[in-house]
Design goal:
The chain has a seven-stranded mixed beta sheet, sandwiched between helices. It has helices spanning 13-26, 35-39, 43-52, 98-109, 126-134, and strands at residues 3-7, 54-60, 63-72, 81-89, 116-122, 138-149, 152-162. The longest helix has 14 residues, at 13-26. Helix 1 crosses helix 3. A hairpin with a 2-residue loop joins strand 6 (138-149) and strand 7 (152-162). The chain is α+β, with helices and mostly antiparallel strands. The radius of gyration is 16 Å and the shape is globular. It has a single domain, classed as Aminopeptidase, CATH 3.40.630.
């Protein structure tokens, strides 16, 4: 079945809320937020998020099977940067190229003036790191104990992809 991606609008807030909560519930150690926090948010909060950030969904037919977001830096000195966040592909849709399609589409959707996209990914998630590397992201550091779920810490690999030539040469 063909996979398509499209940007979600505030009108998609109910479907977005469902897949976001699914992601937080199935992979609690992969995200900075938690299921309990976001499940308590009103639908208006999801609508506002979709109005203020780029969130793409991957579809197989009419069903959302994945999502990823891109948030531009807020300050004048950070407007050239964006952060990839909230990446998720349903288990039954993994290894079908959906993650690659989502990240590639996000790169294509990056607003004018974005020169670099950064992300943080739990170091144990080797398949995600491999995907990001295949799409041109490079690790530049590790944040130790970046996330704490119950009494367990998770380190995150910090990665970046330069869209414009980097002054550092890579």
């Amino acid at each position: 079945m063909k996979v398509t991606t499209r940007r979600l609008s505030p009108d998609d807030s109910d479907a977005y809320r469902r897949i976001r909560l699914e992601a937080l519930g199935k992979a609690p150690d992969a995200y900075g937020s938690s299921y309990s926090v976001e499940a308590a948010l009103p639908l208006a909060a999801f609508r506002e998020r979709l109005a203020n950030t780029v969130v793409l969904a991957a579809y197989r037919g009419d069903e959302i099977v994945g999502m990823a977001g891109l948030m531009r830096g807020a300050g004048m000195k950070e407007r050239h940067k964006a952060r990839l966040w909230g990446m998720y592909v349903r288990e039954d849709s993994r290894r079908l190229g959906i993650g690659k399609a989502l990240v590639s589409a996000l790169i294509d959707e990056a607003p004018q003036g974005i020169e670099q996209i950064s992300l943080a990914v739990v170091e144990e998630n080797r398949s995600a790191i491999s995907l990001y590397e295949a799409l041109g992201f490079r690790a530049y550091g590790v944040e130790r104990h970046a996330l704490k779920v119950r009494d367990r810490y998770f380190d995150e690999a910090l990665m970046v992809r330069f869209l414009a030539p980097s002054p550092l040469g890579s």
